[in-house]
Amino acid sequence: MTTHNHLHFYVGTYTDAPSTSKGIAHITLNTDTGELTHSGALASLRNPSYLATSDNGLYSFSEISQEDGAALQFSSDIGNAFLPIAGDYPCHVDIKAPYLAVANYGSGNVSVYLLDDNGRPLHAVADLYEDGFGPNPDRQQSPHAHQATFLQYSDHLAVVDLGADRVRFYHYDPDSNNHLFQLAQSIVMPAGSGPRHLVFNHDETRAYVVCELSETLVVLTKNAGTWAISAQCDLLNGVESGEAASAIRLSADNKHLYVSCRAQNKITLFDVSDHQPVQLDTFDCLGQFPRDFLLSEDEQWLIVANQHSNNIVSFRRHSKTGNLMPTGYQCHIDAPVCLVEVSR
Fold first, then answer.
1. Structural domain of residue 313, as residue ranges?
2. Is the confidence at residue 2, as pLDDT, over 50?
């Protein structure tokens, strides 16, 4: 959202040495020029590697082990809340009232919490875990839940498991008092692909999955209530996989899809208006290791968080073609790893 001629964003970071970040940062983007300004720290928190917002407030966690105190944090105008997380190295959080879900990469489980009417997390109501592994001996010896996200038009939670090469859908009844999450479907992804994140089209009949290890894009299509793989392609043509694909975003018109490749410092643009994705272009992220990037709500801007070069870079976006043009502006933040736009 804007205040006068500025957009506002929160930045999740890694705070462990050698980073000097203190937690969640606040940056602004000047919509006249694309200039980025670091507006200071929002909250002190160890390794807040993923952020999510709702009308009620801001949610994050510390990406650390249970032994070291992994905890969910909720911040709002009416106060803060902290709850321990029964999992190691949480890496993703999503909200759909009355629930919040946290994906725990290290332990492979998903923790589901009940929220009160003000969005405050009350207590855990479900612990979702499916055993499994993949063929990559360094990355897939056990499950690694990397994303847990609620569908908006059905009562399902999607879980992306990098370690076991699975995308799972759990059904739940938000009006039930037993808070039961039942596995509805488990999709076998290409062996060794390491699915990381997915995004849905507007009517949630198609899902686009970025696979970190194979650096591929896999399309899932829903027919008669069942999901199946319908297409797949490389993220970069003629380039050896660096096993480090990362973020994925879809434009509101369901036409343009963007994916970041950390090892090559690139963002790839696809046309996904038809069944088979078509690669249109690649763009240098103007930094090293683009961990996350974000389309602004008006989709006139794309900003990239480059973790290893400690910079956030702005691009103008062409609404018709999807192309990106560097503004020439950037700001310095140590180890930025997540971006969310916020209203002010």
1. 1-47+244-344
2. no
